[in-house]
Amino acid sequence: MREQISRENEARIAGMTPEEIEDERKQILERFGAGIGSLLEKAKRNRMKRASETAYSGRSGAASPLPPRLDEEATRAALQNLQEVPISPEEPKFERARSPAPPALSRPDTRPSSRADRRLRFADLDPKDVYVYESHPPSPRKAVLALPPPSKDDQDVVSLGTFRGRMASSPVAIVEPTSQDDQQIEVSGGDSAGDNTASQPQGTADKEDYALKDQEPEEGTPEYIRRRYFPAVPANDPNLAWMSTSTEPSEGPASTDLRFDLHGKPIPPSLSAKLPTSLGLHHHAEGSHAGYTLDDIFLLSRSTVPAQRTIMMGVLSGLTQLLSKMKKGEYVPHLEELKGKEEETRKRIVAAGVEALNERGSVGLRAVELVWQCVVGWDEDLIGLGLEGIWLESANGLIRSLSLEFILPSISTMFNQNRDAYPHESLVQLLEIVQRLALENVANAEKIVGEDKLLSGIVQYFLLEPHSRGPEESRSPEPEAISLLISLAQASRSIAEALARSFVDDILRFITILPESSSFPPPVATVLLARSLKFYTVLGSYGLSTSVASTAMEHIARLNHYACSSSASTELSLAWMQLAQVWIACAIDPHATTPPHAITWSRVLAWEWHTEWLALLDRTGGTSQSERELWGCVWGALASWLEGCKVNAVRGGEKERENLLRVAKKSFEQNGPASSVVSAVLDSLMSDLGNSQSLSRSQLKGMAANADTIRNVIRLWLAFLPPHLEGPPEAPPFELPFDRLSALAANLLSHSIWNIPQAPRVEIYPPGYRYFPVYIQHFAALLAVYLSLSRRLPAVTKELWLAQACSLILRLTPGNEEAVLEIFNEVLRVLPTLGPNINPQSASILGPFIQDAVLSRTKEEEEEGGGDEEEESEIKVAKPRTKLTPLVPTPTSIASATTAVLISPFAGVKFQRQFSGLPLHPDWMLNAMNHLLHSGDSVVFKHLPKEWDASEVDVTRTSFTFALYSRNILHRFKLGRYAVSRDEAILSCMKVFMLEHGLVKDSVTSNDEVFRDKTVETLMEALLEPYRARSAPSGESSDGEEWALEKEAGRFLPTGTPFYQFYTDFVGLYDAISFSHPLFALLLLPPLSMHYAIDYRKLFWCEYPQILRTISIYPNQVLSNNLREYLYPVEKDPQVIGSLLSGIVKRGAKEFLWWVAIHHVAANIWQDLRDGSLDGSFNEERGVKLLQAVVDQGDNETVVGIVRYWQDRGGDEARVSPTCFDAAQDVLKRRKEWIEQSVGKGYAARLAGLLPAN
To answer: Keywords, A to Z (predicted)?
Structure first.
């Protein structure tokens, strides 16, 4: 029929004209679509193929016609009349055709000959033609039913003969013989097998083998696979054991190991054995459980098969997301096994991704995604903090473990050579990876900038190409590329200089075109412009690229007008105000810029930007947080403009101040817009400080913005004051709520917000709280400006301001170094007017040491100087500390700043010291003692001004006078917690005595020993007096802090020198030169507290017993908050106890030391003085020997003291003489009973006068 229709169609086409044929073709295409031709061609080819296959099958006889259907009743009747015919082993043997063995030189991937002539074809499908079905378990094969044998009376049974072979599946088969012939072929197991074999007729064994081979195994079974694919391999070959399915449970940890699906999600162990094989989760060595272990995943991630490697990269990416959630405290079910191992696993995962980063195709794309997930996605919460200006270097060191020497060149190649091979999304991920690496530390930033063509490739792809192609380009410029340049420029001045040379002109194009005229969407154009302004702000903070303000003057004027209009977004206005503030600071001192005079004050005045700023304030409300932040930014820019006028304008900018004040003063009147903004910001800030127990990052960021607003309005108030005014003005420029500002400063001073970065991990703090100093520095800048305001208020006396300065200065963080030095100079200027004994030359004496405490030169570099050939001079140049740019730029900071990024809170103490001396410690005024102690190596003494001339005694007197007066004035105003602490005072006095140590008298000399100077001795006694046991100052804790001296000593001792070594030298020096100096002896006692290690007590009691007789210190003179710290826990070291016993028996110890020795010896004798849970178990044998030694060798006072000594173990205060030698009668009675039972009645009789009678 098909052939007939085909012939008719061909005849019809032959009779048609070409026009008719074309018309018919168009109709078919309109009706069936353009793909109908290819579809008919495929159908025709398939039809011809099937026809050829059918013809071939007919010739070979494979397809024979079906036999006619038989009559079942007739067949059954015929079969019943047949005689039984036994199955003869003589029947011909049939074997399955075996596949020919592969040639020896063939490759594993050689195509079989049966498929050599096949071609690979693909269907022309649209996405709508593809439907993805859900996975289902494979249909099980139909099970073979084991039918029971028929009964004897069944008439329908037809015998097919007697089976005489051996069942392979059953090792033992017992057949009951029914005749003699059957007995000869009986098959049995066990020991009778050999007999049965012998009784078989000849050839029976071979016939049985033929019968076994003739049995066809079930398809899919291991035997079937062996016969089909490995016919030449024996059935019991161990190499085929992998095909057999064991019904026994697998050994080892395979069933309990954590397993993951293809999305990286964990599979519960109870489910892994039940999942079907169709899910693709059994393609591993242990095939009975679904899912992949970590070892499986990491192994397959290095597979040579790209598909396997790609899938495993996706699995690791999903697993990384879950680990990140678990690290942040979220609960992830079934992943408890990796709890606490997140960072370790993350390092293994990122190593797998980095290894495949250079791979092509899907493997490389998944590797980029995996590295992004480990580096960027993991730290997503921290990256925002890093962009604010703090290094993200952490203790786990994942980023440090990456090989940037491999990663950065690979990324550079992707952007410059293989850019078209990667989708845009992957290149964005690479950009974010580079951004995260740049936020780690300055070393990474330098490597990124130094990598050949890396930054140029990023800028070219993300910024220049979209901008040059315009709106027809399918993608817009990426603002994150500018953010990367900002982060790198903040890293260091040298990097900023390199970026200024390379990319300033490229970024300028985004400033010259305003968003309203940009070809890109307005949101994108606005963000690009704001980020570009931020980039120039960072460069300007180093004095770089400020010439742009002059060269692009017209564009900047239009930008200023647009930023102050209602069309601009708040983000854009803020960015412009910050840039203008930096440029104004650069113009104040044009010599601070690079190159000099790149921007001048005359041009700033000519541009008159401030007129537009005032108009902006008139149009801006103050209801939202962003609007109030904008008010603060405009106030800051106006303050910088007025400060510049004071320096560069005529008559200190008097005319400019008057004109501006005439406009601004009205706004600050009661209920004015500026006054309302200040009040609202203060309300918000005080409210947030009152609810700071669970601060989030967004809350703290908002608080920092409010602090900036208050800081800028105070700066504006101060900027209106005449430049040479001393003290409070006759009338304030405008009204401010001064009482509320003072309350805010007091709240900030004592607030716990300063302790958040050092706090242990607690649930109330969000992740990344250790990096909160990036926001806390805004509060420090506010306090620094408040001190300048407080000095101008009539209600603040000099004493009060001095107390404020000595306390608030401890809160100033890195970036405020310039403000700290100004406060110090003002303090030293005010101090001589308050104290008659204060040297007016204090500023000149202590100035170099205080400056070093703030901005120290920590390292010396040797430079070879010129000279003759015989002698070369070496000039040692001190390298200054890193200097952080302040939040409010100044001409000084612009010229000297080296970085704009805070050091990581996880950096070591050494790096913290090198970065900045802030925040200061309460003993900052005693910093000169550190340099006197190490005068031979002190950088300060090697670079003192020529006019500096002071002795060790002068420096010591001035330092202790300053410390003493500041401590007293702080206590007077209830600010004692910010004064010199007990341990700091003790160490400072110990330094005075250690000046006589033989290694420290090289650079500064004195005729007499410093500690014997009467003035120095009086100052030290006055400094230590409040810390004696009889008069602990308010604000001190009731219990001594463990290891306090060791902790404080670590700040001045060289790296690697323990405090124990310092104390050893101190005790040795006392033994050599003290001559029983009482203050020297007093300073020996603090390390003998039981809070310190046993080594200190061994050194004092065991190695220097000769000095005991020279120390005469009473308990009320000891420097302690509570004398119990010397008593508990009870001493248990045998060597120290022996020395204590010797000290009281030989009467070497006196007063306080005798009391301490009595206590520890008695506590090792009497069990009622101990607490087993705190002091350890009681050693009765030691107690007996100690009591015997005391009774036999001690004098009456010692024996009475030991027997009648008593302390309340659970009490708050220590009992001293005489109350400690008045034990109760019931206590003495129990002690008597113990003596009689354990020591002996003889000793009890000798002590009868001290013990109660029976």
So the answer is: Nucleus, Transcription
